[in-house]
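pinned: reference chain
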Amino acid sequence: MTTKKRNYLVFLILFVLSNTFTNAQAKKETDAITTKPFGDSERHWYGIKDENNLVNPVPNQPKYAESDYTKIADNMILFQRANGGWPKNYDMKAILTPEQVEKVASTKAVLHTTFDNETSYTHVYYLAQVYTATKIEKYKQACQRGIQFILDAQYANGGWPQYYPLEKNYSRHITLNDGAYMGIMNLLDKIVYNNPNFSFLDEALRSKAKESYNKGLDCILNMQIKDNGRLTAWCQQHDEVTLAPAWARKFEPPSICNGESTDVVLFLMKIKNPNERIIHSVQSAVKWFEDSKIYNTRIESFEIDAFESKYKTVKRDVRAVADSAATPIWTRYYELGTNRPLFSDRNSELLYSLAEVSVERRSGYAWYTSSPQKVLDKYPDWQQKYAPDNNVLKK
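pinned: its structure tokens
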């Protein structure tokens, strides 16, 4: 090979390598890490002005693009409290004003930290992804502090409260509502089963996370409601000591709650090689979902003359309509002891039809759900794999 040809070949190789590196860098800088898990908090921040917020949004608050994940992660570090947890109902994509930054930074010691509205466990996973993408140490440290917050907040029986440190209200209960408990469990599942975004964790923290996961799983099984001798599903919240179904807000009674139970069962169904207790738990919940179906009913929303309630401007109402073509649905609550569809209101009165609920609560809360169908759709494959001789839907 001549010198000229050799030099040309070297140039060509270097050009290709350089171009590949440049494209990789460009991709890394433009790829986004989803902020979808923070949507609930974001909607609350912009939609409900709360005088108790650390900061409230300014008009036309600017936002970072999802591809600006280090800036979003910096916001998370700013909002992270001294105990490693986060407050709820802020937009992590917000480009904060200097005054907002100063206010948030000055309140690190305020430990009003929570798992409600998909808070804290979502921040931990986001920071893990950012550290994996950047290898910037501050994101790793913030992520580890968030994991430790989750471990610190766990009860000895395996459950988690809605807020930690504990507060003197219903938030002390073990909380499945709004995905809090299962959000934590799904995060720990990623750590225990070696999600690559957590490959940086040392063995000590990973071991603690596994212990926490196992305790959390035991607590799930221990909380499953046995009603009239029959194993059914779960409540939105359970007493932190007795594990019995418990009241939360005034319109959230102790009951069998099909919406929250769906995520519990889906989690149990993804466990590989489940033991007999887990199999029995899933089978019982599936049978409960099948038996608690409501047929020939459709829920429709319609406009009304707007009026001001104590809580918001009410512009729409909802009603249950008879419809023979409707797909099965479920009420959010079923009464303990009778299994009747159950409703309530801000005065904690137990009601037995949607029409009895006040307009503000009737239209402002999800009293019906279709989510158990997700479990029923997945059940045939799960049953064939783990309980081939016991199809509870054929009994």
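why pinned: Residues 8 and 329 are 70 Å apart (CA to CA). Residues 7-30 have pLDDT under 50 and may be disordered.
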